[in-house]
């Protein structure tokens, strides 16, 4: 496997930050390209990514992923921990009576760990939202939709982080007023 990336470009940065957060950036085989020098348009790179998209994850079987979200999803499947999205789900699945049949055995210890992580992540998100109106910056993105859905799911376990985090509360008001989520 090899990750082809470029510095200071949005999509490659998304993957780089994701892998750094997972703690696997340094162990990932990679090749840095210069977009300024048009290295992503060279014939040898176009043989990997015919449209010259960066990043590109070249798998050992010859498969190439060129969408940053797909690359992150792949790495999340291969390296499931730490999972930054599943804490509320783990909390819910291991505490709610409706999940008892599906989550055998339910683990109060794991639910407590997930609850602590979800609360910690809410604090992190609150800090992030102190500097921009949305999770990924100045515009509404899939990251905001994902968080909105997770927060809705969290209400089942009475997790309402917007009640203790003012920036998360302001973000929530902006999001629930949007046409697609109203």
Explained architecture:
This protein is an alpha+beta fold and 182 residues long. The protein has two domains: 2-78, Glutaredoxin; 87-176, Glutathione S-transferase Yfyf (Class Pi), Chain A, domain 2 (Up-down Bundle). It is built from seven helices and four strands; from the N terminus they run βαβαββααααα. A four-stranded mixed sheet has the order 2-1-3-4. Helix 1 runs parallel beside helix 3 (68-78). The longest helix is centred in the middle third of the chain and has 21 residues, at 108-128. The mean pLDDT is 87.
Overall pLDDT score? 87
What is the helix content?
A: 40-55%
Unreliable parts:
none
Order of helices and strands: EHEHEEHHHHH
Number of strands: 4
State the major sheet.
Answer: 4 strands, mixed
- Proportion of beta-strand residues: 5-15%
CATH class type of the largest domain: Mainly Alpha
CATH arch. level architecture of the largest domain: Up-down Bundle
Cα distance spanning the termini: 43 Å
Work out the helix count.
Answer: 7
User: Can you tell me the overall shape?
Assistant: globular
Q: Which strand order spans the largest sheet, edge to edge or round the barrel?
A: 2-1-3-4
What are the key terms here?
2 domains, 4-stranded mixed β-sheet, alpha+beta, Glutathione S-transferase Yfyf (Class Pi), Chain A, domain 2, globular, Glutaredoxin
């Amino acid at each position: 496997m090899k990750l082809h990336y470029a510095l200071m470009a949005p999509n490659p940065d998304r993957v780089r930050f994701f892998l750094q957060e997972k703690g696997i950036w340094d162990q990932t085989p990679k090749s840095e390209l210069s977009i300024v020098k048009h290295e992503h348009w060279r014939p040898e790179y176009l043989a990997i990514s015919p449209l010259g998209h960066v990043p590109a994850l070249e798998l050992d079987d010859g498969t190439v992923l060129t969408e940053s979200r797909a690359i992150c999803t792949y790495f999340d499947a291969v390296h499931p921990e730490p999972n930054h999205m599943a804490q509320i789900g783990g909390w819910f699945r291991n505490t709610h009576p409706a999940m008892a049949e599906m989550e055998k055995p339910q683990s109060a210890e794991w639910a407590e760990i997930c609850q602590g992580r979800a609360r910690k992540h809410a604090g992190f998100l609150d800090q992030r939202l102190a500097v921009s109106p949305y999770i990924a910056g100045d515009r509404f993105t899939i990251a905001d939709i994902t968080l909105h859905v997770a927060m809705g799911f969290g209400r089942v376990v009475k997790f309402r982080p917007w009640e203790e985090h003012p920036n998360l509360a302001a973000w929530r008001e902006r999001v629930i007023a949007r046409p697609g989520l109203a």
